[in-house]
Amino acid sequence: AVADNSLSDIEQYVWRKHKPWIPRPLLSMHVRIGDKACEMKVVGFEEYMRLADRIRKRFPNLKTIWLSTEMQ
Fold first, then answer.
1. What is the pLDDT of residue 20?
2. HSE of 66 in the Cβ direction (CA atoms, 13 Å)?
3. Count of CB atoms within 10 A of residue 65's CB?
4. Quick check: is 18 in a domain?
5. Which class for 42: exposed (0-12), middle (13-18), buried (19 or more C-beta within 10 A)?
6. Contacts of 67 (CB under 8 A, 6+ apart)
7. Which domain, by its residues, includes 31?
8. How many domains does the chain have?
9. Is there a domain that residue 60 lies in?
10. What pLDDT is attached to residue 51?
């Protein structure tokens, strides 16, 4: 357990018995669509999902996808 009085109440609660849980294996994808179009070639969301499907076929025990984006 972390014994640090500089942690907030919620941090103390989260860290008291365990570290934050992250499922493994995990595919993490940061989807960039509209906000980067002026800087680079972008693809549609469906293309990201096709790629995720291809990766999951290669790694059948992969069940979790962490999706982050700048889209609103």
1. 66
2. 8
3. 14
4. no
5. middle
6. 29, 31
7. 23-69
8. 1
9. yes
10. 95
H helices of 1-72, in order, are 9-15, 45-58
Domain membership of residue 6 (yes or no) is no
Take residue 44 and report the two structure tokens written for it: 């549609």
Helix (H/G/I), strand (E/B), else coil: 47? helix
User: Three-state DSSP class for 26?
Assistant: strand
Confidence of residue 72 (pLDDT cuts 50, 70, 90): low
Q: Residue 4 domain-assigned?
A: no
Per-residue tokens: 38 = 């002026």
Q: How far apart are CA 62 and CA 71, in angstroms?
A: 25
Helix, strand or coil, per DSSP, at residue 31: strand
User: Which run of H or E residues covers position 11?
Assistant: helix 9-15
